[in-house]
Amino acid sequence: RHTIGWRVSFSLPYPQPPAKRLCCRPGYNPACRQGQRAGGVLCGGPGSAPGGSGKTHNPESLLDIAARRVAEKWPFQRVEERFERIPEPVQRRIVYWSFPRSEKEICMYSSFNAGGEESGTSGENNDETQLPFLRGVTLLEGGWVDNVLQVGFHLSGTVTDPATSSQPEMVCSVSVSFDRCKITAVTCSCGNKDIFYCAHVVALALYRVRKPEQVKLHLPISETLFQMSRDQLQKFVQYLISVHHTEVLPTAQKLADEILSTNSEINQVHGAPDPTAGASVDDENCWHLDEEQVQEQVKLFLSQGGYHGSGKQLNLLFSKVREMLRMRDSNGARMLTLITEQFMADPRLALWRQQGTTMTDKYRQLWDELGALWMCIVLNPHCKAEQKCSWLRQLRRWNSVDVCPWEDGNHGNDLPNLTHSLPQGTPSLPSESRPHRTVFTRAIEACDLHWQDRHLQHIIASDLYANYCYHDNQDGSLFDARGWPMWHEHVPTACARVDALRSHGYPREALRLAIAVVNTLRRQQQRQLEHFRRHKKELLHKGTSITNMEGWVGHPLDPIGTLFSTLTETGRGTEEGMVPLHLQRLPVQRLLGEGESYVALAVETALIGLGQQRVMPDGLYAQEKVCRNEEQLLAKLQEVELDDTLVKIFRKQAVFLLESGPYSGLGELVYRESVPMHTFARYLFTSLLPHDAELAYKIALRAMRLPVLESTASPGDLSRPHHLVSVVPNRYPRWFTLSHIESQQCELASTMLTAAKGDSRKLETVLESIQKNIHSSSHIFKLAQDAFKIATLMDSLPDITLLKVSLELGLQVMRITLSTLNWRRREMVRWLVTCATEVGVYALDSIMQSWFTLFTPTEATSIVATTVMSNTTIVRLHLDCHQQENLASSARTLALQCAMKDPQNCALSALTLCEKDHIAFETAYQIVLDAAATGMSYTQLFTIARYMEHRGYPMRAYKLATLAMTHLNLSYNQDTHPAINDVLWACALSHSLGKNELAAVIPLVVKSVKCATVLSDILRRCTLTTPGMVSALNSRRNSGKLMSLDKAPLRQLLDATIGAYINTTHSRLTHISPRHYSEFIEFLGKARETFLMAHDGHIQFTQFIDNLKQIYKGKKKLMMLVRERFG
């Protein structure tokens, strides 16, 4: 029996010529066909396929069976060459059976998936009825297909688009060429520009599939021409030209000229092209794919940069490639090649490489999918050697391009290749001399893999492959203890084989290999546990070292996800009674052990993979991928409902993980740079808690550690392989996802705290674990808040044990953040006081007694003590008088200690807190006086002075105001200084106290204030009322004698004010501009008012103006203005 295999070419010309081969008369060429053929007959005539409209179904004739097989496998030219003469009925049946009979492929080429459920490539219309396939079905069922004609291997017809509110009726001319049950070319006058067939092509094709008996079938047009005489041929040509003269006349004349020319090229070959005559031997047999549109659409999506749903559309294209692979359609590889070429031509790659920036996460994931698809393609178990060589050349070409993305983002790595692992202790090349692994590297390496291994072939080929007498316990055993086969290979590579089998439409074989791989993983896990138990002391003494250079979770090939999907898809189908046809005959009881199920096997596989101890990879993207892949696997696990069988598996795996030492991420030995297990452990904890609480807590507590943040590495760390040394010696490496990891650690702790409510022993254990392992103050604070909320739920009494845990965590946060900047510090302090209040009065007293280890002096006085002394707190605690006094005494003691330590910021708060205790208040006041000379600013002293006046201590206020004045210095141009109001207040206070106090303060004012306007303001205020009297605003009568300006202390103030005006005037004139002249004249006017307050002020001012005219006579315009105003 002769069969034709797949043949794939990536360089098919587009568009293909309408006629694929040449046909000629018998005798004109030795290869010509013999005999003449009759005209057309209906497809559904004698000998048509069963399944028509008749009620009876006769067995198929041998002619139909043979014709159908030939039509599927042989190009028609080979049929003609093989047989000298082909009987007309045979020829007609071959032509009939050459059209596709399944709608599945037509649907695949006219929608994004086999069900036609996804949106079109435009991404603009989500109405499913607008998809080409569904629209085509609607047109067919609506009777809009007409004039259907099949001539040889060519189908044509008209399809009418009915009129709508927005567009008129449109009649489209459609033609379809086909060969060996595949549509090889399509044309439609609608002008469709898309990757997929338009609705009109779909309607015509489905018409031929569903109603073959209504399609009139003619043999190829060359057969009709063979039986015509010369006159008939001439008439035929002339009528053809007459009907279509505007379109074909130029071409007809050109062809006539060439035929009449003896030496023309057209006369050098035998025969003439016939577009209806079927395929030649050299023609590719593949479905029509519009390569140009594939390239244009991908280019368009890439140019949109992730906007307008372009990422989704590209993922749909990748899904289409996978769909083609499952259908074993050679266009899968062809389409992926076109997509890859556009990805490689993306101008952003060069731009990002030049700028040193990383590509977006979604775009990076598209590249990952691209690499994974190429892995599937090169691992096709039935591809030919020349195909694989062609793909390898392409992959190497892309791989060599400078901008080709690296596998792990922006970092190179020294991970093992697909077929080998680095032996322990083997030194690796320095990073700068290692070739970077690109997204295509694994596919290139996979080209070296083959499927010829006999053991592998037996695993894939049979459900019953086993060896029950095989009891070899060596590492390389081909069978496990049950006699079932195992497959020893680099795990990601073995899983890539499973994915390739699934992708290429071999789910049964993929399931067999997946189960063999899982059996191997289980056996390996058991042996690792046994090895650790035998050598536990030695390994514990030696220290930690990583056992897995390449983790399975987050791996580019996603091995655990592949196994899980392969097993669960079969498992769900079995449970729901919807097993696909290709899996219905699987002997479930043979592939699985007693009591096992596919879902249980999948769950156990996921637990093994998630629990693997593995090193954190380099680079942001690779680290994010580890987190993302772990979350994806856990999301899949959470969809599985736990039953007794699964709980047993959870228990078994939990024990394995706890006892497997360096092989497990939850073992006793953990490498410093291992991927943490917090997220995984939280899932295990919540799953096991209802069934085995002790085991659940063991898992969660073991997982709480985060050794990468420990300040010192364990001694064992020094023995790790030198090619794993951290990037930054003596510090943790660059973990870009560290904040996410710490948040997951916090979530794990919070979950345990919630579960442990009411169990003081467990709460204490969890608290110790948190204090030991969590290093982030913000996360400890969150845990403290969580514990507080849980402990004070409204529907129950407060859980005092959990409240104490909350308080302990809050105290730890206070200690951690005391000496570091934290923008949430004030919130943390307020919360701690609230928490201590809930715990009780002794907790408040305790934090005040040890305030210096928890708070800054400012926090202790302004927040802690103030809140404790508030009425709200007293009412909340239901305190009696004695308890109130004790709490107040502690608060006053705290306030005085803080005032001693930080008088600048705490003195006022201390005075306020000590108001009701005379001794404490006096002590606080003395602290202020002692600090005033050196440590306090004039602003702080003025504030306290005003407070003293408000409290009824004017002399103390005066004392503090004078001390403040000694620290003050106002220059001539600081007429808007914020301290001016304080100076005016101090002078008013002194004036109200009496002449002596005013006399004492004026020298301080003269010394500290050089601003003329301020001094003149003070001078006027002092002359309005009598010293010793309360301000005129507060006293209706002023019977005392006003102070003289000719005597001390006002004479001193007056002279200082006049001197300030003179100095300020000269300073302003040094850099004055014309636009300030008018302002300057007003300033001199105020100066004159002050000069005139003196006994001889008029003379002094006149002399002052004369001096100005002499000194600044160059400023003529200004001096003219002075002369006009002041003479």
Walk me through the structure.
With 1127 residues, the chain is mainly alpha-helical. Among the domains are: 62-113 and 129-245 and 274-288, no CATH class; 296-410 and 437-572 and 594-679, no CATH class; 680-709 and 736-820; 973-1025 and 1043-1126. Helices cover 55% and strands 4% of the residues. The strands form two sheets. The chain has a six-stranded mixed β-sheet with strand order 2-7-3-4-5-6, covered by helices on one side. It has a two-stranded antiparallel ribbon with strand order 1-8. A hairpin with a 2-residue loop joins β3 and β4. α25 crosses α27 (693-703), α32 (825-839) packs parallel to α34 (857-868) and α39 (938-950) packs antiparallel against α40 (954-966). The longest helix is centred in the middle third of the chain and has 28 residues, at 507-534. The chain starts with 21 loop residues before the first strand and ends with a helix. 39% of the residues are buried.
Write the layout of secondary structure elements.
Elements: E1 22-23, E2 41-42, H1 62-73, H2 76-82, H3 88-97, H4 103-108, H5 132-141, E3 145-151, E4 154-161, E5 170-179, E6 182-188, H6 199-210, E7 216-218, H7 221-226, H8 230-243, H9 245-260, E8 272-273, H10 291-303, H11 310-326, H12 331-344, H13 347-355, H14 361-378, H15 385-399, H16 441-446, H17 454-461, H18 491-503, H19 507-534, H20 536-542, H21 559-576, H22 588-591, H23 598-611, H24 620-638, H25 644-659, H26 678-688, H27 693-703, H28 738-755, H29 760-773, H30 777-791, H31 800-817, H32 825-839, H33 841-849, H34 857-868, H35 871-877, H36 881-901, H37 903-913, H38 918-932, H39 938-950, H40 954-966, H41 980-993, H42 995-1008, H43 1012-1024, H44 1050-1070, H45 1077-1091, H46 1097-1111, H47 1116-1126
